[in-house]
């Protein structure tokens, strides 16, 4: 583990994506360290049951470090390399099949907005703002924004947000389901950490299955989705968590999913 990745005792893997300074731009070392930690989860080397994305400074992440873009000897090769590493990080977020929470303090712009969108729960405050930011510097989205934003808000709204480079404040983000919850600004990290802990204590297999089904739904026919649901619920019914959940329901007690996982 590095200073940018922390596995808490309750099973929450905290990944820092931006450092204090440089406007809280996306930190390349943080992207590499985060991807490495997520791959270790997939290999069974880290027992993480939820992921928490945070920034070190006042902002979650204000996007890429534009000054470094400009200083690169070969901008195309440099940007392609950065995009590749960010793609690896985003793909690993999905491949781990762990629920993800973002502590969206302050600005989430550019790649920071992309990463906030990939979280299952994005917690913000009254000062939270999101902005695509790409048109402002003559570039196009990365980090999966053009894939996920239309799925959340619809193609028409996504087109408007991206082409007009809209700044979305906290109420607009909540209405558009780009934020899950708004708390006081000084409570964003605390609340996000608590949500991540709740998820880490929950039914990991159930969460993973729900995420897979939701992601597949847009490309499945109804019949295909019904079959996938039937297979999934049947498979989960014989897992430790599935047995514990049913037994606890019948016994009128709170299920102990961590114990059931062994």
TrEMBL record:
Q: Where is the signal peptide?
A: none
Instruction: Specify the domain of life of the species encoding this protein.
Output: Bacteria
GO molecular function (one):
catalytic activity
Pfam hit, one: ECH_1
Provide the family line.
Answer: Belongs to the enoyl-CoA hydratase/isomerase family.
- Name the record gives this protein: Putative enoyl-CoA hydratase
**Which organism is this entry from?**
Gordonia hirsuta DSM 44140 = NBRC 16056
């Amino acid at each position: 583990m590095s200073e940018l990745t922390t596995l808490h005792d309750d099973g929450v893997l905290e990944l820092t994506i931006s450092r204090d300074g440089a406007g809280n731009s996306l930190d390349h070392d943080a992207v590499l360290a985060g991807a490495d930690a997520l791959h270790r989860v997939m290999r069974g080397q880290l027992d993480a049951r939820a992921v928490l994305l945070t920034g070190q400074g006042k902002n979650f992440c204000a996007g890429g470090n534009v000054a470094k873009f400009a200083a690169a000897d070969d901008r195309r090769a440099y940007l392609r390399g950065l995009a590749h590493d960010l793609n690896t990080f985003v793909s690993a977020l999905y491949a781990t099949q762990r629920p993800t929470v973002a502590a969206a303090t302050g600005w989430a712009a550019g790649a920071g907005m992309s990463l906030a969108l990939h979280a299952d729960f994005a917690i913000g405050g009254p000062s939270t703002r999101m902005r695509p930011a790409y048109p402002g510097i003559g570039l196009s989205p990365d980090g999966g924004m053009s894939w996920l934003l239309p799925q959340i808000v619809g193609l028409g709204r996504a087109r408007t947000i991206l082409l007009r480079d809209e700044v979305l404040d906290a109420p607009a983000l909540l209405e558009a389901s780009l934020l899950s919850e708004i708390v006081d600004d000084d409570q964003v990290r605390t609340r996000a950490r608590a949500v991540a802990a709740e998820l880490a204590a929950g039914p990991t297999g159930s969460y993973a299955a729900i995420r897979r089904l939701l992601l597949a739904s847009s490309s499945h026919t109804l019949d295909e989705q019904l079959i996938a649901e039937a297979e999934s619920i049947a498979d989960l019914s014989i897992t430790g968590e599935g047995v514990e959940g049913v037994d606890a329901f019948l016994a009128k007690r709170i299920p102990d999913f961590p114990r059931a996982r062994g």
